[in-house]
Amino acid sequence: xxxxxxxxxxxxxxxxxxxxxxxxxxxxxxxxxxxxxxxxxxxxxxxxxxxxxxxxxxxxxxxxxxxxxxxxxxxxxxxxxxxxxxxxxxxxxxxxxxxxxxxxxxxxxxxxxxxxxxxxxxxxxxxxxxxxxxxxxxxxxxxxxxxxxxxxxxxxxxxxxxxxxxxxxxxxxxxxxxxxxxxxxxxxxxxxxxxxxxxxxxxxxxxxxxxxxxxxxxxxxxxxxxxxxxxxxxxxxxxxxxxxxxxxxxxxxxxxxxxxxxxxxxxxxxxxxxxxxxxxxxxxxxxxxxxxxxxxxxxxxxxxxxxxxxxxxxxxxxxxxxxxxxxxxxxxxxxxxxxxxxxxxxxxxxxxxxxxxxxxxxxxxxxxxxxxxxxxxxxxxxxxxxxxxxxxxxxxxxxxxxxxxx
Length: 406
Prior knowledge:
By secondary structure, the chain is α/β, with parallel strands linked by helices.
């Protein structure tokens, strides 16, 4: 979630493997088998059995996924299959298209329900929704305002007049067209009002926002916590940075009071790409839960998936760690895959989108910009439409989603 000119990102590893054959591998599940040799815990012959999953394992078309290993993640169910149960500390698999989700292990989290993601959305382009001859609602069912929802865009100075005009137009579009509205963002270490910001200012901002936009479905309550960014007023609203994180707990408490029906998210980057960031992020989540903060979900920006140093093995592992340790739903909030070459971008989408969609942990994905040349500066080539035409990745993605391909 950075402004168009914001600086680059940081920089790490994990596990998660698939092996061929429907039989159980050594702690690794087999992929779909059209004939169906069932692995341990898999389904009967002829149904595309899943192997007993130590890490992954996907069921066949009508097969059920095998159970996971002691600390593994169960496989996803097939098209109509049920997902496997998680191991002792493992997470359950995701159900198939019409299948049921697996049950979590002794301390593992349950799998996500089967079927499509709740949404695949996008952001505004230079503060407008429909743009470059394209109608937003045709392609996307969720929106995040790229800049219009940031506090400094609405209130330029602490205690000053609120200017809702741009945000009004975006919100009204979502209400007219049945699109989910996600607020981005209440508190961030950048794009905040000038002047001395107090607790009263923060609470007023949240209260006025939620009164004006009562159908807000999700909110990035705090974006990019330290060490990534630090609000200048953190001490004024509770302090505790690198300790108990009281200012973040307070922010979530105030957001819940202001917007009781919204999903409250702690949004950050690099937490599914690099292990150090993942561990730090989870330490904040743990502190917030201990303090009783009403946090509902994890926000993983996913800007760094186009970094050559990031592997699918690492991302699968870190997603599983967020889900099992954080024990909260995950939203991918700012996905952008930046390539000048169309085929490279297509390959990247074909690699990453199914991984996220089928992980069993991700409930929704927001792509961070769709018009080539009009996405934020560190990812200028991430747009999916160039010179009014679909790039191959956009065509493929719309096919995956069952949406128009032109």
